Every structure is written in structure tokens, then in C-alpha cells.
């Protein structure tokens, strides 16, 4: 039984054939697929996503034992009936056991919430908060639509994502303090792939801008795969 775990694909209406083919391939070559959050990006209206070519990936996922874990950009997927039919389970944390190890898979935003989650989601009539929300949304839309992240990654390649290692450090600290003897934590969210067997922590990285990482678990062996597409 081969389990594949990936996250942070942030897919939407900008259809990308290469990315589609890459995702189709890793899904097809597995028995169980765990989408570890931010698969779809809520910057794109859900209806638009559901009528896009990306939906064909969901049809392939439906044939597998597929689990949808939601992240911080796809919360609206929770309890969505159209999405539900493709997955065995939609949750914010999924656990499974193989031999003596219990793998705990969660996006990571519950361990290190974003500024938007801790502050901007408050239903406050405060004018400054309202303004902050507007600025956040305009900035995010610009960031998303312009694909500006392509510029630093052209120069620095995957090294650009090392700036997010600090987030893994915080998730690892959580793992050290909270996990039981036989437990192993697998997160996404930071976009920085890592496999730390000593601290029983892995980050499945992200799949975007031509970079692709994911985790594979088979015969109680955990592997971090780093690819380009
Ligand atoms: Mn995230």
C-alpha cells in the first residue's frame, strides 16, 4: 500500500497542463492519496474551480482512497457536497497506522496560525481592522494573479523557500512537546520540504512554479521526493 501526501498546490482557474500532468502522475501511482491542505485556493471562486479542467484530477482521486485535509486557503471546501463525493473523508487532521508508527497528517496552520487567521478573521467593526482586511485582500490578489513569486525562484531556485524553514522549526517544536512515543507528524503549509527522522517530523513541501515535493510512505518507510515539472 503506497500512500502519497502532498499539499499547497494552490490550484485555480489558471490551468497549467504541465502541473496537471505531474499531479495526475503522482496520484495515479499511489493507492492512498492525502491532500494536506491548500489544494484549491479560495482566491478563485469555488464554482469557477469546480467548472475548470482541474476537476478531472478529482475524478482520478475518486478512484483512490483519497483524504482531503483543508488548509488556510480552502476552508470553504469543508462540507461542500460537490467536493465530498470525490473523497473518503474531509477533515482537518488524519491519522493512520503502519506497523508501530502512527502518522498524524495536518496542514500546519492550526500549529502556527497565519496573521489572517489570528487577527483579520475577527468579525470586528473596527475601522483599522476593516482597512487591514482590505489591504490583505488586495495584496494577496495581486500576489496570486501576478505570479510574482516566479521572479525570486528564477534566480534562487528552491533555495528561495529556505526562508520558510523557521515555520518548520516551530512545527517541529510542537512535535517534540506534544507527540507520543510512536507518533510522527507530517505537515505542509510552510512550502519548505523537510524529512527529520530524529524529530519525527516531515514537511511535504509544495507543488507550484515548477517545483514539486511530496511524501511517500510504503512498507513503513517514509520518503521525501523532490522533483521539478
Ligand atoms: Mn497554507
Q: What is the H level of CATH, i.e. the homologous superfamily?
A: Metallo-dependent phosphatases
Share of helical residues: 25-40%
> Helical element count?
8
Overall number of structural domains: 1
Q: Quaternary status of these chains?
A: single chain
| Rg, nearest Å | 17 Å
Low-confidence stretches: none
Q: How is the CATH topology named? A: Purple Acid Phosphatase, chain A, domain 2
Q: Specify the biggest β-sheet.
A: 7 strands, mixed
Proportion of β residues? 15-25%
Key terms:
8 helices, 7-stranded mixed β-sheet, binds manganese (II) ion, Purple Acid Phosphatase, chain A, domain 2, 12 strands, 229 residues, 5-stranded mixed β-sheet, alpha/beta, 33% helix, single chain
Descriptive account of the structure:
The chain has helices spanning 17-28, 46-50, 55-62, 81-84, 115-120, 127-146, 150-156, 165-178, and strands at residues 3-6, 32-36, 65-69, 89-91, 94-98, 101-105, 183-187, 194-196, 201-203, 207-208, 211-218, 221-228. The mean pLDDT is 92. The protein is an alpha/beta fold and 229 residues long. Strands 1, 2, 3, 4, 10, 11 and 12 form a 7-stranded mixed sheet that branches. The protein has a 5-stranded mixed sheet with strand order 5-6-7-9-8, with helices on one face. It has a single domain (3-228), classed as 4-Layer Sandwich (Purple Acid Phosphatase, chain A, domain 2). The structure holds manganese (II) ion (MN). Residues 8, 37-38, 71-73, 107, 109, 189 line the site of manganese (II) ion.
Amino acid at each position: 500500500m503506497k500512500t502519497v501526501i502532498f499539499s499547497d498546490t494552490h490550484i485555480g482557474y489558471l490551468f497549467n497542463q504541465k502541473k496537471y500532468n505531474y499531479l495526475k502522475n503522482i496520484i495515479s501511482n499511489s493507492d492512498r492519496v492525502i491532500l494536506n491542505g491548500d489544494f484549491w485556493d479560495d482566491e478563485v471562486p469555488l464554482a469557477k474551480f469546480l467548472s475548470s479542467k482541474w476537476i478531472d484530477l478529482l475524478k482520478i482521486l475518486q478512484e483512490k482512497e483519497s483524504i482531503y485535509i483543508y488548509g488556510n486557503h480552502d476552508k470553504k471546501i469543508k462540507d461542500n457536497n460537490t467536493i465530498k463525493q470525490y473523497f473518503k473523508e474531509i477533515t482537518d487532521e488524519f491519522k493512520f497506522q503502519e506497523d508501530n508508527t502512527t502518522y498524524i497528517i495536518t496542514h500546519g496552520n492550526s500549529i502556527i496560525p497565519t496573521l489572517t487567521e489570528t487577527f483579520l478573521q475577527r468579525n470586528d467593526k473596527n475601522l483599522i481592522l476593516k482597512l487591514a482586511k482590505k489591504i490583505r485582500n488586495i495584496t494577496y490578489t495581486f500576489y496570486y494573479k501576478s505570479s510574482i513569486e516566479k521572479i525570486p525562484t528564477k534566480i534562487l531556485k528552491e533555495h528561495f523557500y529556505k526562508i520558510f524553514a523557521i515555520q518548520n522549526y516551530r512545527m517541529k517544536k510542537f512535535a517534540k512537546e506534544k507527540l507520543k512515543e510512536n507518533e510522527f507528524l507530517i505537515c505542509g503549509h510552510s512550502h519548505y520540504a523537510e524529512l527529520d527522522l530524529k524529530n519525527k517530523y516531515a514537511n511535504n513541501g509544495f507543488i507550484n512554479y515548477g517545483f514539486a515535493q511530496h511524501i511517500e510512505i510504503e512498507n513503513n518507510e517514509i520518503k521525501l521526493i523532490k522533483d521539478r515539472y
